[in-house]
Amino acid sequence: MLNPRTITKKHTPALMLMLGTMAFSSQGxxxxxxxxxADTTRGSLPAPAESKxxxxxxxxxxNIHAQTTYVYQHxxxxxxxxTGPQSLLPTPExxxxxxxxxxxxxxxxxxxxxxxxxxxxxxxxxxxxxxxASIPNGExxxxxxxxxxxxxxxxxxxxxxxxxxxxxxxxxxxxxLASNYDSHRLVFTVGKITLTDLFEKNTYANDPRTQFLNWxxxxxxxxxxxxxxxxxxxxxxxxxxxxxWAVRIGRFMEPKVAxxxxxxxxxxxxxxxxxxxxxxxxxxDLPGLLRVLVxxxxxxxxxxxxxxxxxxxxxxxxxxxxxxxxxxxxxxGISFEQRLSSDIGLFLRxxxxxxxxxxxxxxxxxxxxxxxxxxxxxxxxxxxxxxGIAFSTAGLNRQHREYLAAGGLGGFxxxxxxxxxxxxxxxxxxxxxxxxxxxxxxxxxxxxxNPGYNADRRGPVMIYGARLHxxx
Length: 472
Hints:
The protein is built from four helices and 17 strands. It is mainly β. It has a single domain, classed as Porin (Beta Barrel). A hairpin with a 4-residue loop joins strand 11 (325-339) and strand 12 (344-353). It is globular. It starts with 23 loop residues before the first strand and ends with a strand.
């Protein structure tokens, strides 16, 4: 994966390509199962949706799905007294991304599911992907470009061992064969995934293709999760489900170099470890979830204070890439989601990490708070529509601030100075308009204050966007 500093500066508009793949599935009948309601099991299933038809307990042998998503964004100009080598440009800009993914699943033995996801991507970021920690498009990639690139996004094996309890039927979907799962079960996943496939799968703020777009909204801002430049990694995880409880643990490869394309295969020495505990609950008849995540990354990374010390007396700004060594970063996240009524859902997140160590695979956020509401369109007779609004505030620790103030450059930030630090705040709202089955159109608005944590360039920055999502 490419460091964002090396992203091409030659950009040309991309044409939106239309979805042209059919969805297929093959089913075999299984023995009758007791189907639990969606409300009581939603948070504890390794799948996108539960069955709405209690008589449907069939299990698929294979399926194929596909999606395409196009995002266009325009940034207004804003006033800035100075602009550094890695600042958000104060001039008006446009940005876009297009992705196409095919999801192929097959069942080869009892409990064994294999998935393959070929994907293609095109993208043009704002300001060459510099100047913001809360990046406004979750579909943008660090090594993106204006020429289509194809790759294997995912290839993984999921093995489920049912251990008893109530049986729940899970519907067919992308990376999910229609299956029957026990409420007591052990699940192993091995292969190439993105960690948000398994950890912090928030109901209301997880998928930039249908929900909030900003990086600070789609997962924990301070979770520097193991990933290559496209956000994918290789490793394994185990999940244990017992009624309303779930525990997940995993180890995955880190990139060889911060924000780079190639993963380090020495997973025993360099790795990202995650541990998550989840509990489903009900307030009255309304379901909710609480998750706690802790992570520890072992990487070849620089320390901000080491970089500042190495630059003293040289007349040069500090360079965290020049002082890299074996280093560890530890952090945590807490996530709460709650349905407030039949059509309103709430999410809240908090995260923090000991980011004396440079950002390695996600973004330059050391601590963050976020929260928002998701409202179903039942109230205005549009039951398939969704309105969302959320706010996040991200911050840096003292060592990271001092590094940027001394003129240091990070993976994304570098105004050349930081005389007046302030938290980077984001407000985002979107409306997901259901055009027809499998077709959704979403206008999106983001307001960002203090881009790059710099109160001198506070903005606000206004970003107007539109997203077209097709899925079969």
